Amino acid sequence: MEESNETPLPGKSGHPAPAHAAYAPVARGYYTPIVALFTATLIISNICATKGVQFFSGSSLTLGPLEILPITTDAAFFLFPLAYILGDVLSEVYGFRATRHAVFYGFAALLLTVICFAVAIRLPAAVFYENQEAFRTVIGTTPRLVLAGLAGYVVGQLLNSATLVLIKERTREKYLWARLIGSTVVGELADTLIFCSIAATAIGIDSWSQFINYVIIGFLWKTLCEILVLPVTYRVIAWLKKNEPTYAPSAAAPLRS
Question: Which of 1, 55, 94, 172 could lock onto 98 through a cystine, CB 3.0 to 4.6 A?
Answer without folding.
Answer: 94
